[in-house]
TrEMBL record:
Keyword Lyase applies: yes
Gene: cynS
Keyword terms: Lyase
Protein name: Cyanate hydratase
Catalytic activity entry: cyanate + hydrogencarbonate + 3 H(+) = NH4(+) + 2 CO2
Function per UniProt: Catalyzes the reaction of cyanate with bicarbonate to produce ammonia and carbon dioxide.
Pfam family name, one: CYNS_N
Active site (catalytic residues): R91, E94, S117
Species, as recorded: Rhodococcus coprophilus
Length: 149
């Protein structure tokens, strides 16, 4: 029996097919009828696709059932230390390192004792024109979960 294709290898095949066909992540999200950031994360191995979604994306990209099988698996979420050193990703870590304590304090002040869910959660990205250089606007939208004792 042949082993299941690892999710990181499936992600690399998806990305290669996307690039070679001149497709954007937004076009693939539209093809699936799913949110852009979620779709991109799923196709990079951080969320499981439904079987039908995996089949549709593989058909669109000309990839075989081994890739679809892998895309439908539950992931091991997170990133390797190598990925975390990427400058773009590191800047998010840096921003949370600097502003995380303030955000925590403000969440507690506004909502009480609890957390923002990263499961019942959406994230979006947009470009905002600015005379000093375009701005990246990232919106995290998570349900507040109060601690219950």
């Amino acid at each position: 029996m042949k082993p299941i294709l690892p999710k990181d290898e499936a992600a690399a095949l998806v990305d290669a097919a996307r690039i070679r066909q001149g497709l954007t992540w937004a076009e693939l999200a539209d093809h699936l009828g799913a949110p852009l950031v979620w779709t991109t994360a799923a196709l990079l191995g951080q969320h499981p696709l439904g079987t039908e979604q995996a089949d549709r994306i593989c058909e669109r990209l000309g990839l075989d059932e081994a890739v679809a099988e892998s895309l439908a698996l539950q992931p091991h979420r997170g990133s390797s230390p190598e990925v975390m050193r990427d400058p773009t990703i590191y800047r998010f870590s840096e921003a949370l390192s600097v502003y995380g304590p303030a955000l925590k304090a403000l969440i507690h002040e506004e909502f009480g004792d609890g957390i923002m869910s990263a499961i019942n959660f959406t994230v979006d990205i947009e470009r905002r024109p600015d005379p000093d250089g375009d701005r990246v606007v990232v919106t995290f939208d998570g349900k507040f979960l109060d601690y219950r004792w």
